[in-house]
Amino acid sequence: MSFQEIFGHQPTLVRSAPGRVNLLGEHTDYNGGFVLPTAIPQETTVSISVSEDGLDHIYSADLQERQDLSRNGQPEGFAKYVQGSVRVLERKASIPPLNIHVSSNVPMGAGLSSSAALEVAVIRAINDLLDLGLNGVDIALLAQQAEHQFAGVMCGIMDQMASSVASTREMLLLDTLTLDRKLIPLPAGFEVLVLDSGAKRRLAESGYNTRRAECEKACEILGIASLRDAQLSDVDRLPDPLNKRARHVITENARVQEALTATAERFGELMNLSHASMRDDYEASHVQVDALVERLQAHQDVLGARITGAGWGGCCVALVKAGTAKQVAADVLQGFNAAGGEGRLVVPE
């Protein structure tokens, strides 16, 4: 149902934010490292107006779910991200009660940052409605606070930064320690393919927060502020499984740095190495994802493929020869789904 059908009038303002796919740099963002995401065409759209009855009215067109809440109420499900974003903004400005309508074609639970897109779209809409003067980085940092404090996921800053400032035409090189960033072109002659494995996960219920705690424990043992400061030689000083977690982060940061000057062929090899590290050292993959990645890596038009997003299910990303993405998807999904998978094409649409 539309905003008009739910609230009886047209919205005052409509804003959107994209999902993202991460090409390299997984689980490095909360470790002060480097990431290399790009925005995807799919977006979350938020339409808003001021509520006249003192309550926030939040409606998801995709879930066909409505929640009517006081500002200090107890939102559930998707509304945690929406009202959480409003409530972190309240620390900066007076925010009136709102009517909020959400629609999205960013797949949920697939590792494409549907939650970050929702948070950024909500904050962007309120920023423009009230002329708060927030820039893209401000919006990303507030969205991250909403995820931490209201969704219970202690995420890094990559997802929100990618949704707020990235481009679908370029890669965003982001230093998550300083927030220095640069848009750089994708390897010439190649395009990005994203397939959903069909294996759903929710970060608050996965091993995400456990992995973050393991990285913090490794830093405590090594006496450093973040794993960005660690060297490969430090890995031997750590007990299992902290040694494996640290090795993934250290080598993943190195892969991002190497990718900046790599040939397309080497870029693909780095993606393959990244997947193996996510699977074996970080233990954050999934049997269905591994099977899909294996099929992608075996295809003649694929340079490299890996799990993308935090893990434990979700999507795979591949670098493929330009003009071949849909055919590669058809080839790979035919075999994957015939073997019992539930994969589907996400990008290109």
Describe the structure concisely.
By secondary structure, this protein is an alpha+beta fold. It has helices at 3-7, 78-89, 114-130, 136-151, 158-165, 208-222, 242-259, 264-280, 287-298, 325-338; strands at residues 13-24, 34-50, 56-60, 65-69, 98-104, 170-175, 181-185, 190-196, 302-307, 315-321, 344-347.
Descriptive notes:
The protein is of the alpha+beta class. The protein folds into 2 domains: 3-183, Ribosomal Protein S5, domain 2 (2-Layer Sandwich), CATH 3.30.230.10; 188-347, Alpha-Beta Plaits, CATH 3.30.70.890. The chain is 38% helix and 23% strand. The protein has 10 helices and 11 strands. The chain has helices at residues 3-7, 78-89, 114-130, 136-151, 158-165, 208-222, 242-259, 264-280, 287-298, 325-338, and strands at residues 13-24, 34-50, 56-60, 65-69, 98-104, 170-175, 181-185, 190-196, 302-307, 315-321, 344-347. The strands form 2 sheets. Strands 1, 2, 3, 4, 5, 6 and 7 form a 7-stranded mixed beta sheet that branches. Strands 9-10-8-11 form a 4-stranded antiparallel beta sheet. Strand 6 (170-175) and strand 7 form a beta hairpin. Helix 4 (136-151) packs antiparallel against helix 5 (158-165). The radius of gyration is 20 Å and the shape is globular. It starts with a helix and ends with a strand.
